Amino acid sequence: MAAAQARGSARDPRVVIIGAGMSGLLMGIRLKQAGIDDFVILEKAADLGGTWRENTYPGIACDIPSHFYSYSFAPNPGWSHWFAPGGEIKDYFASVAQAHGLPARIRYNSEVAEARRSDGTWRIRCTDGTEMEADMVVAATGVLHHPRMPDIPGLSDFRGACFHSAQWRHDEPLDGRRIGVIGTGSTATQITAALVPRAGQLSLFQRTAQWVFPLPNPEHSRFARWCFRRLPGAGRAWYHLTRLLFQWTFSRAVLGHNLAHRMLAGIARRNLERSVRDPALRERLRPDYEPFCKRLIISPDFYDKIQQPNAELVTAPIERVEAEGVRTTDGRLHALDVLVLATGFEAQRYVRPLQLINEHDETLEEAWSGGARALRSVAVPGFANFFMVAGPYTPVGNYPLIQTSEIQADYIMAFVERFRNGEASRFEARPEALERFVRDMDAGSERTIWRTGGCQSWYLDERGRISMWPWSFERFRREMRRPK
Ligand code: NAP
Predict the structure, then answer these.
(1) What is the percent of the chain with per-residue pLDDT over 90, rounded to a whole number?
(2) Cβ atoms of residues 75 and 26 within 8 Å
(3) DSSP 105
(4) DSSP state at residue 203
(5) Over the range 238-260, which residues count as b (16 or more CB within 10 Å of their CB) and which as e?
(6) Which of left, alpha, beta for 59 (phi over 0: left; psi -120 to 50: alpha)?
(7) What's the pLDDT tens digit per position in 327-351?
(8) Which residues line ligand 1 (CB under 6 A)?
(9) What share of residues in the chain are helix, strand, coil (percent, to 5)?
(10) What's the half-sphere exposure (Cβ side, CA atoms, 13 Å) at 281?
(11) 359, 161 contact by CB (below 8 A)
(12) Residues paired with residue 122 on neighbouring β-strands, in sequence order
């Protein structure tokens, strides 16, 4: 990748990391481990944890086994469940940050408004007017971060409580009330399963049906937890077992019509047949696209909960929201007290809306006017010494982001080391390298299930291009082994 120019003098770079979520903390830990102290993590909120801080809706849990959804260097023997609840995951990130001495490096309530590069230096300005300089900027701003508000007429007319799933109103009572949930993604199904036992009536507004994979979520027994704590080998073995399982099944299944896809898709199809008793409801819950085209829903009890007497699946399209509830195109008014918008995120925004301006006065917005693209997900031509963790083309299908972030952080650290050694002071992606990379990504994505499966999802940008890594995790690791 790197066009290494101007030899620098050997010194530690000043680094600014944007975001104190999973990947920003990781980047901070890697700098600390390398003995680099001149860095700061700028966090716009008053707490760390990224998506696990923002999302606190009822029923939130990871849909990747928690022993695998952990930093490889910081196993947690105390995970309560196979798929730990969200609060536990946030506490995990806080404790790892503490153990690595990061809290002193994080500046909270510091939202970056602008980062401008001139004379070989990045000048960063926060919305509160604070300014600082850096040799390198690492954006670790997450993928699913900006809530997508649906464009439904009348939303502001609703007299009850209405909020996005990532902005949960914990002051709003739920027990015994009439709750509407718009959306049927991973978030909406977790909310539905958690709230049906509490609500007076729950109406789930479905625009597109989803395939559901029935994985149970048992507690780790006290004996298992004792083993994880006392026998570190047991935790490592569990980690690697889950890793291999994911690598060869869920991660493979999105790469085309292969054995893993047939096997797992078969389980999802059987789950629908066996779990939904009413044939009419079953048909309404049956997606008209291939399993894995959208992110597969992992839930042991969604079908059970949607069949409860106080739950209703609404498939008539929404016409508008009114003061009393949601009006569907069949003329029916669904009267509600609470309306939850589980309508997903603007996955293509990445680091934006922050103004990133390079030495030629070009903004990232302008550079990305044809779509967000980054060489090996980490670098954008024209934007020297600016790196991203979890940038465009990052998520490796169905593989935990935490594992890909570790690889990207190490990749970025290789440039930090070169700067530090005085080997070079400026690193920039070549445009022709990006073009080659994008061609490779586009070609790879043609045979993925996201392209051939016949659906729309947040994996595609507004031009219909797939912004995921379209190859295997092994290939991702291989290509990211050392900087090019
Ligand atoms: P999502 O998968 O993008 O789902 C959004 C839902 O809202 C879809 O069902 C969509 O329908 C619907 N929707 C959007 N706009 C609408 C409108 N105007 N009218 C009616 N329906 C509308 O978002 P998400 O459920 O928040 O999940 C996003 C991703 O977060 C997941 O894919 C997953 O990767 C991650 N996640 C992970 C976990 C976990 O356990 N680790 C939990 C939650 C989320 P259409 O399908 O028709 O567009």
Answers:
(1) 88
(2) no
(3) G
(4) E
(5) bbeebbeebbeebbbbbbeeeeb
(6) left
(7) 999 999 999 999 999 999 998 889 9
(8) 61-63, 144, 150-152, 182-188, 190, 207-208, 295, 318, 342-344, 456, 458
(9) 35, 20, 50
(10) 18
(11) no
(12) 117, 134
CA dist 81 and 363 (Å) reads 45
Distance (angstroms) between ligand 1 centre and the Cα of 295 equals 9
Strand order in the sheet with 39-42: 106-107, 39-42, 15-18, 136-139, 386-388
Separation of CA 292 and ligand 1 centre (Å): 14
The confidence score (pLDDT) of residue 216 equals: 92
- What's the 167 CA to ligand 1 centre distance in angstroms? 15
Identity of residue 171: D
Model confidence over 110-167: pLDDT tens digits? 999 999 999 999 999 999 999 999 999 999 999 888 999 999 999 999 999 999 999 9
d(CA 97, CA 114): 26
* Ligand 1 atom with minimal separation from the 64 CA: 41
End-to-end alpha-carbon separation of the chain, Å? Answer: 4
Tell me which H or E stretch contains 458.
Answer: none
